[in-house]
Design brief:
Blueprint (H helix, E strand, L loop, with lengths): L3 E8 L17 H11 L3 E10 L5 H9 L3 E9 L6 E9 L3 E8 L6 E3 L5 E3 L4 E9 L2 E9 L16 H17 L2 E6 L5 H5 L8 E3 L14 E6 L3 E8 L7 E7 L1
Parallel strand pairs: 1-2, 9-10
Antiparallel strand pairs: 1-14, 2-4, 3-4, 5-8, 6-7, 8-9, 10-12, 11-12, 13-14
Helix pairs in contact: 1-2
Length: about 250
């Protein structure tokens, strides 16, 4: 008998609403938790959730506010939004989460001048993998956040970045060969096929939606992919008060 699961991805930008890249903005987790309660996905991947040097991290805080019994978070880099926080990848789940691993992409070491004249250095990015057991079946959840290369005068399609995408793609295919996979990724690029074309298609992954804006600038940066064990039923992309839309996919497997 088929089992349905709703899988979501959301770059929460430190929990701050309004324009992106706000320094020392005040988080509004009531808004974010309200969105999660409204749509009630079973598993949620969040990017740019803050983990604090002191106090409760935003992934665990959102889980408590929105009624998720399980959550994990992996800090990746300092935050460009607050001095006392680290940017993390997080998973909120109605099912237990186990076997957590984290892979960092090779940092290209780029720098730039921000819109207010501040110096920018590119921070570490990467992905986490975890196992959730749904109706007795283990499912691998992958949550990825890729470099915002466009802010540094570069394009992810440049040949110098090909080894990063090839390594990521090999890992995704190997992971899908071992278990059903749900992949959430803030790709910072509109097209999955441009960068991970080798994993999309027969025997690999399918994309849940294409050419749907997920940011206020009208660009798709956020993507959901799934391995062949899943059948896509429907999707939602809903603008929020933050700088990324809430996105989910309902699937059967």
């Amino acid at each position: 008998m088929a089992v349905e699961v709703t899988f979501a991805t959301w770059n929460v930008g430190g929990g701050v609403t309004g324009a992106s890249h706000q320094r020392h903005g005040v988080p509004d987790l009531d808004h974010h938790a309200g969105v999660l309660r409204r749509f009630s996905p079973d598993v949620v991947c969040v990017q740019e959730a803050h983990e604090y040097d002191l106090g409760l991290g935003q992934t665990a805080d959102l889980a408590a506010r929105a009624g998720y019994p399980h959550s994990v978070a992996v800090p990746i880099s300092p935050s460009h939004l607050a001095d006392d926080a680290r940017l993390s990848l997080g998973v909120l789940s109605r099912y237990p989460v186990a076997d957590l691993t984290h892979v960092r992409f090779a940092n290209p070491g780029l720098s730039a001048v921000g819109p207010s004249g501040e110096d920018w250095s590119i921070y570490d990015k990467g992905y986490l993998k975890a196992t959730v057991v749904i109706a007795g079946r283990p499912v691998t959840v992958v949550n990825a956040h890729c470099f915002p290369l466009h802010h540094f005068g570069a394009s992810p399609t440049e040949a110098r970045f090909a080894p990063m995408w090839e390594a990521f793609g090999r890992d995704l295919l190997a992971t899908a060969a071992a278990a059903p996979v749900l992949l959430a990724v803030d790709l910072n690029h509109p097209s999955v096929e441009d960068l991970l074309g080798g994993v999309v298609g027969e025997g690999g992954y399918s994309t849940a939606f294409r050419d749907v804006p997920t940011t206020p600038k009208g660009v798709q940066q956020d993507h959901i992919l799934h391995s062949g064990a899943f059948r896509l039923l429907d999707t939602r992309v809903v603008p929020t008060l933050g700088d990324h839309s809430y996105c989910d996919a309902r699937l059967a497997f």
